[in-house]
Amino acid sequence: MAEFYYQGRTADGQSVEGQLEASSQSAVLQQLKRQSIIATRVEPAKTKQRKRESTPWLERLQSKQVSADELIMFCRQMYALSRSGIPLMRAINGLADVTRSARLGEILHDVARSLGQGTALSTALRAHPETFNDLFIAMVRMGESTGRIDTAFKQLVDHLELEKDTRKKVASAVRYPIIVVSAILIAILVINLFVIPAFANVFDRLGADMPLPTRILIATSDFLLATWPYLIALTVLGIYALLRWKKTPEGAQHWDRMILRLPLLGGIFERIALGRFARPFAMMLDAGVPLLQALRVASKTVGNRHIGQGVEGMLNGIERGESLLVTASASGMFNPLILQMIAVGEETGNVGDLLVDIADFYDQEVEYDLKRLAEAIEPILLVFMGAMVLVLALGVFLPMWDLGSAFGG
User: Which pLDDT does position 198 carry in this prediction?
Assistant: First the structure.
């Protein structure tokens, strides 16, 4: 199945456009014919996506993204409204008028227009991939097919709130080390650019012999003073090149692999990614999404290209007729305990429930690791700070102890 963008006219001559999911363009034409729409243009939806990407960069920069809190509030409101039996089009139009986010209001108005033209809600949401990801679309589509759209939005609320909570915990855990390291680097720059040159002038006038630590600090200061414009330009170019490299498929995969190998943090990021795979995968299986489609969507929700490629490898194995346990074991991503839980799930037919248990296991591991992260990083920071203070003390204060002899000479 693929997405197709169409333009046409209704029986009364009104111009309509939208997106439909079908196996071919002829299937799209048949669907439009059943809706009494005369198609004037049908093409793959990726063409429309390219048009969106060709929008001037200034407009893309000015368009504010929808925040996680706004998306969670939208799902909560949709759950309450759909549960009350209010028609989707009326509910979305109402939310578009009352939302505080101008960007979300524009998106919802566009979704409401598509619904008015006979487009399904999941298809209308797919036209805004920057806001609604593949998991969001898959859950809404299953809610439409089962008639439980309220349940789909409730599950999305739980998933988005868990994602938000995880991001907050990670940000809280790394905030202290980042602040400390940044303060140390700023202090080193200030000392090298302002303090050390003043001391160097004093000792030059006195003609005193400077100890080795002081000579090293003065040489470092002279280097920074002479080359700081080039260092700033080199840093900016390096960051720009890194960001461009990360946008390439190969660069993104290599970067995500390096992230998983970071000391202290790599294991945490790996467990977060595996939890992001297990929970959405279980949600989609419980909602009735076919196994292959659920795996394909879950591979795009992990937030790590390297692990996503491993999930895609599982997809290829299942397409060859292998079991979920065999493909999970071949991926090398899961420990024996998790593989045993998957085996029990396949034997009992409760793979979805066992996957939820796996996700809970990873969440507990991440929470425990984040609590230990500060304890593990604090000694390293203390040693680093002690070394910096020692170097600066030897370089700055050691010659001051010899000032008396310098004046006497």
Answer: 78
**DSSP percent split of the chain into helix, strand, coil, nearest 5:** 75, 5, 15
- Show the beta-strand stretches assigned E in 236-297: none
Q: pTM of this prediction? A: 0.67
- Rounded to an integer, what distance in angstroms lies between the CA atom of residue 74 and that of residue 153? 9
Residue 278 CB contacts under 8 Å (≥ 6 apart), including other chains: 355, 356, 358, 359, 362
In sequence order, the 6+-apart residues with CB closer than 8 A to the CB of 391 are 213, 217
Q: For residue 194, what are the contacts with CB-CB under 8 A and spacing of at least 6?
A: none
Q: How many other CB atoms are found less than 10 A from the CB of residue 383?
A: 10
Determine whether 273 is exposed, middle or buried from the number of CB atoms within 10 Å of its CB (0-12, 13-18, 19+): buried
Helix and strand element counts for the chain (H, E): 20, 3
Give the per-residue pLDDT at 84: 86
Residues of the chain with pLDDT under 70: 1-2, 11-15, 40, 45-64, 203, 206-209, 400, 402-409
Q: What is the pLDDT of residue 116?
A: 83
Task: With H, G, I as helix, E, B as strand and everything else as coil, classify residue 299.
Answer: coil
The CATH label, of 1.10.510.10, 3.40.50.720, 3.40.50.1000, 1.20.81.30, for the domain at 155-409 is 1.20.81.30
- What is the spatial distance between Cα 311 and Cα 291, in angstroms, rounded to a whole number? 12
Tokens found for residue 340:
């045993």
Rounded to 10°, the helix 266-286/249-260 angle is 110
Q: Which residues pair with 16 in a beta bridge?
A: 8
- Tokens 């939310």, residue located: 95
Which helix (DSSP H) or strand (DSSP E) does residue 21 occupy? strand 15-22
Going from the C-alpha of 43 to that of each of 37, 48, 57, 254, the distances in angstroms are 16, 9, 25, 34
* Residue extent(s) of CATH 1.20.81.30 domains in the chain: 155-409
